[in-house]
Write a structure and sequence with these properties.
single chain; 266 residues; alpha+beta; six-stranded mixed β-barrel; two-stranded antiparallel ribbon; 4 helices; elongated
Length: 266
């Protein structure tokens, strides 16, 4: 069995020598011969990982084909992809209506020698801006109540540019009546909050500047002008297909629901 394996390896070396030429065959394992993808010229003549002397390879697919030189994993260690931090979110693509924003990160080191591939380099999320391109205030009727996680509200300013405290707003409690199936299957980190939207639960939604209109002191879709029996519509900003209905319970000064059931008007 040993002599048969050696003969096969020798035959393979002779065939590759005839195809690639004598300059491609060299002694010494993988030292200085680490290649990407399948590269038939990335070869050597030495002991292979199968303990057979003959032609062996030093490209980053040899581990799968099991024809690496014995020192491949020492000379060509795997390098995972390395990415930089996320850049800032862009402005909304369209003002005065539900739209999207994006952010990017860049590859700092490409994967090599079978290392882990690069993760997603771009993310998109929903957004809504309240001023148009000329700086004017958007109209008051923007459709249903657009909501997002309470974590978004924690980043809102509490004082204006002159240092004057802004109106802290108020909270409205709703009983969830329905939601689409898309809410429960979100896997992106910044949209996990939609998975906690469940029929029958009471949720709290904060109305804060700049979502709160100066002239009315209310937020779009908050239901304050509606009867308690009215069925109102809401939509998750980051996940347009996550939407549903709810009924207003009452208005409170502060939101007192658990974090996973606390949202903000946007």
């Amino acid at each position: 069995m040993g002599s048969g394996g050696g003969s096969a390896s020798l035959l393979g070396a002779v065939v590759l020598l005839a195809v690639l030429g004598p300059d491609h065959l060299a002694e010494g394992g993988c030292a200085g011969r680490c290649c990407h993808s399948r590269d038939w010229s990335c070869l050597s003549t030495d002991w292979s990982m199968q303990r057979v002397y003959g032609t062996c390879f030093c490209d980053d697919t040899c581990a799968r084909t099991r024809d690496c030189c014995f020192d491949y994993f020492t000379e060509c260690p795997a390098q995972d992809c390395v990415v930089g931090p996320w850049g800032p979110w862009s402005v909304c693509a369209r003002p005065c209506r539900p739209s999207t924003r994006g952010r990017r990160r860049h590859v700092e080191r490409q994967p090599a020698n079978g290392g882990a591939a690069c993760p997603r380099l771009e993310e998109r999320a929903g957004c809504l801006e309240y001023r148009d391109h000329t700086g004017g205030r958007c109209g008051p009727h923007l459709g249903p109540a657009f909501i997002t996680s309470m974590a978004f509200g924690q980043k809102r300013p509490t004082h204006d540019s002159y240092g004057t405290p802004l109106d802290p707003g108020f909270c409205v409690e709703f009983t969830l009546q329905s939601r689409t199936a898309h809410c429960a299957v979100e896997t992106r980190p910044h949209t996990h909050w939609t998975r906690y939207i469940t029929e029958g639960f009471t949720v709290c939604v904060a109305c804060q500047p700049p979502a709160m209109h100066n002239n009315t002191g209310s937020c779009q879709g908050d239901g304050l002008q509606s009867d308690k029996e009215a069925v109102l519509h809401w939509q998750a900003l980051e996940v347009p297909r996550c939407a549903g209905t709810w009924r207003k319970v009452h208005k409170t000064q502060r939101c007192r629901c658990p974090p996973q059931h606390s949202f903000v008007f946007i």
